[in-house]
Amino acid sequence: MLARDVTLYVLARLGLVVVVMGALMLVKVPLLPALAVGVVVALPASLFIFKGLRQRVATGLDAHQATRRAERDKLRSELRGDEGPLTQA
Q1: Would the CA dihedral through 66, 72, 76, 82 be positive or negative?
Q2: Region (Disordered): which ranges (predicted)?
C-alpha cells in the first residue's frame, strides 16, 4: 500500500511538470526553458494540488517507521538477553 501511494504521488508530481511544460511549449516556449519553468512552478504547486495524497504518503511512512523502530528495539532487546521485566522465582 505504501509503495503504491509513493509511486502514485511521484507520478502525479512528474505529470504536473509535463502538463506545465506542455502548456508552455504550446505557446512556442523552447524545450529546456519550458522544462525549467515546469519544474519550478509544478513541484511547489503539487504540494497544494496533491495535499491529500501527500498526507496519505506521510502517514504511511510514519506507520512504517514506527513498525521498523519497534522491530529494531525488539531485536536489540533479544540480542542483549532482555526478556522483559525480571521476576523473582
Answers
A1: positive
A2: 61-89
> Taking CA 2 as the corner, what is the angle to CA 39 and CA 63, rounded to the nearest 5 degrees?
115
**18-35 CB burial, b ≥16 within 10 A, e <16:** eebbeebeeeebeeeebb
pLDDT digit string (tens) for 10-55? Answer: 999 999 999 999 999 999 999 999 999 999 999 899 989 999 998 9
C-alpha to C-alpha distance for 87 and 55, rounded to whole angstroms: 44
pTM, whole model, 2 decimals?
Answer: 0.70
Residues with Cβ within 8 Å of 22's Cβ and at least 6 positions away in sequence, in order, are none
* Residue 53 burial (CB count, 10 A): 16
CA end-to-end span of the chain, whole Å? Answer: 46
Cβ–Cβ under 8 Å, residues 23 and 42 = no
3-class SS at 19? Answer: helix
